[in-house]
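Q: Sequence in, structure out?
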Amino acid sequence: MDQELINLSEIIITLLAASIAFVQHKRADGAVIESTHAKQATENVLNFFDQTDDIVTVAPPEVPGRSFKMSEESKRWITSDRSPEERESLLRQVAEAESKRLGVYQISVPSVWYNIEYGVPLGSGGSGKGTK
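A: Exactly. Output:
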């Protein structure tokens, strides 16, 4: 009877050890998957800001809005000296681009166009004056 108890104890200990090993293995698999996702997310963020790389053209969810959204000051600047219709059109175009999380885009109205990069107007052309 003593030998049977010893064998039973050994089996229970072995099953317990196997269960612990299984749980640790599953946790490690989850950590590897999380690590892979984190590396991909980091790569996407870097590619989004890399001007020579056009793989990622939409801001990944990890990029905060302030990285690609236009400031109120810039919105006032691009709409100054514009007719109310042009003002509304420019602001609508900015809002549409921001809703698509675009980093680089162009907006235009009949009197002017602007190249926008990460919320900053970097180039423009046209007559420069709208009708008020």
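The chain has a mean pLDDT of 82.
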